[in-house]
Amino acid sequence: MELRTLRYFVAVAEERHVGRAAARLHMSQPPLSRAIKRLETDLGVVLLHRSAVGVTLTPAGEALLDEARGLLDRVERARVRVAVAAGAATLTVGILGDTSDSGATRLAAAYRRRHPDVEVRVRETDLTDPTCGLRAGLVDVALTRAPFDETGLTVRELRADPVGVVLRADDRLARRDHVRPADLADRPWFRFPAGTDPIWQSYWHGGRAREGPVVRAVQECLQAVLWNGTVGMAPLGHRPPEGLAVVPVIGMAPSRVVVAWKAGDANPLVRSFARIATTAYRDCSC
Q1: What does pTM read for this prediction?
Q2: CA 237, CA 160: separation in Å to the nearest integer?
Q3: Which of 22, 33, 200, 212 pairs as cysteine with 189 (C-beta 3.0–4.6 A)?
Q4: Are residues 232 and 221 in contact, defined by beta-carbon separation less than 8 angstroms?
Q5: Residue 168 — φ and ψ, nearest 5°?
Q6: At CB < 8 A and 24+ separation, what contacts does 272-276 make?
């Protein structure tokens, strides 16, 4: 069994869908399906039950998934140890400066346990750069939120958070169980500066052009709501400051927490970070 084929299988098993796995691997679906079929033929077992909605693992598939993850993990550890021995023991991580994230805390602990000899440098960025300096070459890997322009990048989803609208606590809408984007059509919204990634900007504006104060940081967004009655979107799950409320928005796609790195980057520290991030977020209810 080749390592590449095992990576293919792990992607399909984790995504539970060949199409999504192909997108994650940046390849088309037919060669991925053929590779999995060849793996089943080589092993003489059925690994996946296929249906119109996706795939499920057979008992043999579950066993191989456990072994493949362990093997790929050992390979990554070996590559990182070689990189450390060669003097390449620094990883710069870009983080979006929104709020604390228990998933990121769990990831930091897991990465430190796995690679205690790697120095991790953290670069926090404001809301104007969803790639956290990755596209500018300032960081090696980014722990951030999507959507944004993914051209030239590899992006892997870690978690999807429902979103809400941030309101003053005394706003008439703050007493509702939920709102719809149409309920906010006549409100001023906080906006990001000109030149901000248009996909990112459009998402946080609810898909349409808005008028309102220009902000760069989370605290500026919150202060704009508190002082001016401005509204805007935010992920649910964080306790708002006193005087503010967050009401769930119906009919808006969730905000995806992602790990991103430059496509084709073979740095073993980056690849290991992405895999540990996937595991850390998958194994916790954060």
Answers
A1: 0.78
A2: 11
A3: 212
A4: yes
A5: -65, 145
A6: 272/76, 272/77, 272/79, 272/80, 272/111, 272/114, 272/115, 273/91, 273/93, 273/111, 273/140, 273/141, 274/141, 274/154, 274/156, 275/72, 275/73, 275/76, 276/107, 276/110, 276/111, 276/114
Q: How many residues would you count in the chain?
A: 286
With vertex at residue 225, the alpha carbon angle to CA 220 and CA 230, rounded to the nearest 5 degrees, is 110
CA dihedral 28, 31, 32, 35 (to 10 degrees): -170
To the nearest 10°, the Cα dihedral for 223, 201, 259, 179? 70
DSSP-assigned letters across all residues of 81-113? HHHHHTT--EEEEEEE-S---HHHHHHHHHHHH
What pLDDT tens digit does each residue of the chain (286 aa) get?
789 999 899 989 988 999 989 988 878 999 999 999 999 999 999 999 998 888 999 999 999 999 998 898 888 778 777 877 777 688 999 998 765 677 888 899 999 988 888 889 999 999 999 999 999 999 999 999 999 999 999 999 999 999 999 999 999 999 999 999 889 888 899 889 989 999 999 999 888 888 889 999 888 988 999 998 898 889 998 788 899 999 999 988 999 999 999 998 888 889 889 989 988 888 765 5
Q: Who's near 126: CB < 8 A, 6+ residues apart?
A: 97, 216, 217
- The Cα–Cα gap between 3 and 71 comes to 9
Hey, what are 226's tokens? Answer: 């508190």
**Residue indicated by tokens 């069994």:** 1
DSSP H/E element including 145? strand 141-146
169 phi/psi in degrees, rounded to 5: -60, -25
Determine which helix (DSSP H) or strand (DSSP E) holds 125, and give its type and residue range.
strand 119-125
